[in-house]
Amino acid sequence: MVVTTGNCSTTVGCSETFFHEKPSLAGSVVLLAIFAILIPIAFALGVRYQTSIFATTIITGLALEVLGYIGRLLLAVDDASTKTDFILFLVGTVLAPTIIALALFRLLPPIVATYGDNFQTWRPQWHNSVFYAFTAVCVVLQVAGAVLATVPTDPNTLDTGSRLLVAGLAIHLLSILLFVLLGLRFAFAVRQQKDILNASKLTVHKTRRFKTFLIGLTIAAFLLTIRAIYRIVPISQGFSSPVAQDEVSFLVLDGVMVLLAVVAALVSFPGRLLGTTLPSASIQERRFASRPERPYPTAPVQLQPTYAPTHYRQSIKSSKSYSPRNSPRKYNSPQQNMVDSEALW
């Protein structure tokens, strides 16, 4: 899995190159700088629109990309590169898109809630739990696979690490495809019931900002899908394969794809429409538009008695023959004068 040069019978003279040729120094520096610049931008947008969860997830993915390209930069400038640099590069560039994709996965339930319950094609209650589970499994498999595929010297252990790494990437790809499938089902449901949507008072879906948000989310998911497919191929063939050693394909199909996906997510920042975790203004607009106008229920009204009896009082203790039936006059109790205003409507 690792390209070695020199006499490896002793520690001296045996150097691990990891690449037939050194990684591109200029490409690594440019991507490292851009990913680092996007971190404060994502932080500022999160503070501005109070979307802490989305912004924190994106920032975590960007920080992992920065760590990954720091490791790649060390591999490019250091002749005696170490396994630590390669693990830093591998773990950072593998985990970062997984975390960034999680930020996109959480946006689908608020989008569905914005349109209304009539357009639900699945239960949004389990949406986040399923994708959290996918992400957790991906992270565990990718970290374990990256360590086992680089640190040990046993060939069997190296092969096991590569398989775990490929399995983690495959699950990551599966989660993106599931997300895309749910999005397509929802889009088809909206298109089928377009007349209902046009007849409603909801107007947020017609705004240019909301359409830009949906386009940005679609582009980001598409770019992450391309990157996941590409990354599976070189790792499955081995780090020393021609595909894995191709510097241009890695910078374009991995680094640039992730970079453009993050830019698309930040340009169409969801906090402008969806608020912190769920849509605020758009949800209220939908609820009031779909709720029929009816008077609010009021408290029961107590009617005043039509007369105030001042005579014919009889003590129960003073008369043994007293009976409610023999009472000269029946008084209406306060409970009988209670009228529920809800029944009046």
Automatic annotation (TrEMBL):
Residue spans of biased composition, Polar residues class: 310-339
Assigned keywords, A-Z: Membrane, Transmembrane, Transmembrane helix
Bilayer topology annotation: Multi-pass membrane protein
Region (Disordered): 310-345
This protein's record includes keyword 4Fe-4S: no
Transmembrane segments: 25-46, 53-74, 86-108, 129-152, 164-190, 210-230, 250-269
Transmembrane helix among keywords: yes
Cellular component per GO, a single term: fungal-type vacuole
Subcellular location: Membrane
Main location: membrane
PANTHER family membership: PROTEIN RTA1-RELATED, SPHINGOID LONG-CHAIN BASE TRANSPORTER RSB1
Record-given protein name: Uncharacterized protein
Biological source species: Apiospora kogelbergensis
